[in-house]
Amino acid sequence: MSSYRKPAFTLIELLVSLAxxxxxxxxxxxxxxxxxxxxxxxxxxxxYRLEIESVLEQLNADILSASHQPNGQKSIKFYALENxxxxxxxxxxxxxNTQQLHGVEVxxxxxxxxxxxxxxxxxxxxxxxxxxxxxNAEIERVGEKVIKLVLTNQHFTKSKLFxx
Amino acid sequence: xxxxxxxxxxxxRLTADxxxxxxxxxxxxxxxxxxxxxxxxxTSEEIHVTSHLYKTxxxxxx
Lengths: 164, 62
Description:
The complex is a heterodimer. By secondary structure, chain A is α+β, with helices and mostly antiparallel strands. Helix content of chain A is about 35%, strand content about 40%.
């Protein structure tokens, strides 16, 4: 009678390979999770920076369309205090109800609670939160009729010049 | 994609800022870090936009 044993792994070899596979899976899983979190974080930062660019464009459009005072200057007032900036400007807008031109006051606020744009008019008030993340805002005077709005966050600094 | 969009916004902001400084007869002093992701190279005569986002280099004479 001949004894024939099929070649196979021993129990210890199987256990060792299982343990190694487990370690590899845990390591890979943590790497993948980290990369996904980093990716999401970077995407959110990019989206926020893009949001700020869009806000600056909108602010620029408001300032360009601000009405002029009798002395020729635009009716824009800036208030800056401790990384907060408020901007009041007067412009004309078309009423959505009557389709007629009427004067509106636009108020921009940059502070700890984010960026808001409010419109006050005879027909009612309208307020929109453009960004709910904290942003530090500062005003620098560049020339007699030019000011610079500097927006700073932990990830970026952006500035925009405005001609008054 | 988002970086390219942001770069387009930053370039339009830079162009508008330079126009404002020119109209106000101010020296063209810009802070390159405020216009990221654009890469600006500032010389005494010109401001070059050297960002990889654009095939054509933009040049502003100072």
